[in-house]
Design goal:
Number of strands: 7
Shape: elongated
Low-confidence stretches: none
Strand content: 25-35%
Order of helices and strands: EHEEHHEHEEE
Strand order of the largest sheet: 4-5-7
Mean pLDDT: 82
Oligomer: single chain
Structural class: alpha+beta
Helix content: 10-25%
Number of domains: 2
Length: 160
Amino acid sequence: MYSGTSDLLLFTGGSYASTYNDRRPFIIPNSVIQVSTDQNGHPVYAENTKSIDEAHYDAYWYPTSNLGQAYSDRIIDRSFLKLRDISLSYNFPKNWSSKIGADNLHLSVYGRNFLLWTPKSNFYVDPESSNLGNDLTSQFGEFITAPTSKQYGVQLRATF
């Protein structure tokens, strides 16, 4: 799915990928550069010794004018496993509820959006959250969606 959240975080430097080397100039590990071609026209490579600095970040993060390639890291795996709702309930014994004049006394503890497991490539957003509606277009992704809220609560119910 397309993630507008990952696009924005990559653009502003707030994503994990943009924090490499504490945002200081660096040489891309295990990288090579083409230094010449051999007599058959095949490229000849050598170890890269040129660091990427602030002036060259765009060339690193956008190495092509093909937006399909430049934005490939904005396409993330949509698979997920979610523990959406969980609740634990307890009915107190009748002798407890009768002390306050009630027929029943019931206690519940609940949580919503309790746990979410996503692939390592998706640490940006809940795949179910989308501001593109709830029809087919929502399946394409999200466009800078707010984080999914978690809800926790306790309910005490007395029946008289």
